[in-house]
Design brief:
Elements lengths: L1 H15 L9 E9 L10 E8 L8 E7 L5 E6 L5 E8 L6 E5 L6 E3 L2 E3 L2 E9 L9 E6 L7 E4 L4 E9 L2 E11 L2 E11 L4 E7 L1
Parallel strand pairs: 1-7, 1-8, 9-15
Antiparallel strand pairs: 1-4, 2-3, 2-5, 5-6, 9-12, 10-11, 10-13, 13-14
Length: about 200
């Protein structure tokens, strides 16, 4: 009877132990999803990166590659090398590349979802509708590709410019107007749907 009770208590304590099981290899699996919709991204290339730690911040080289299935699933099973640090990255056409920042535990099963930002586009129409002189300047930037502030100097500015942005997100925009040596700053936000082009006009 005593042996039975001890065995029962051991079984209960084992069931309550939430410590991940130590495996003879490492498993990393999950799904690649689209930001904003959580829809699966099929055919995404997921890379397993590995390398020794370096002060240069290198993420190592590609150890293995997996193409996600129709439901966005990927899985790696491998035996980690000693002194190696492992990460994941992912890429797919019409999506921004995922920066390799997901690390995980060796000799355990890791469940990690990767969220990719879809591409989108913003078409800017910039026009000086109230010129003062040839020193007029409109400088604009924003959290988009090539988002460093850009100058547009002159009293006859009327241009269109297409820039890639992040889809399914509110994109912050900012610009500065200088006329008669006086500079004013303006801010706005535009929602940028995935794989679509939004037109934004700045008349100054």
């Amino acid at each position: 009877m005593l042996i039975f009770l001890l065995a029962t208590l051991f079984w209960i304590s084992s069931c309550d132990d939430n410590t991940p099981e130590v495996l003879p290899h490492t498993i990393v699996k999950g799904r690649v999803l689209e930001y904003g919709t959580n829809e699966p991204v099929a055919g995404a290339k997921v890379n397993l990166l590995g390398g020794e730690w370096s002060l240069g911040g290198s993420f190592g080289s590609i150890q293995d590659t997996f193409l996600t299935d129709a439901d966005g699933y990927y899985e790696f099973t491998f035996k980690p090398k000693e002194d190696y640090i492992y990460y994941l990255d992912a890429e797919k056409e019409q999506y921004w590349d995922f920066i390799p920042t997901l690390d995980f535990s060796d000799y355990k099963e890791n469940n990690l979802d990767i969220v990719l930002d879809p591409e989108a586009w913003i078409l800017f129409h910039i026009k000086n509708v109230n010129p003062f002189d040839s020193n007029d300047n409109l400088r604009y930037g924003g959290f988009i590709e090539g988002g460093s502030p850009q100058d547009n100097i002159g009293d006859n500015i009327d241009l269109w410019e297409l820039r890639k942005s992040y889809g399914n997100k509110n994109i912050p925009l900012s610009w500065w107007v200088t006329k008669n040596n006086i500079t004013n700053q303006y801010r706005d936000t535009i929602y940028s749907p995935a794989r679509d082009t939004m037109v934004y006009e700045i008349f100054y």
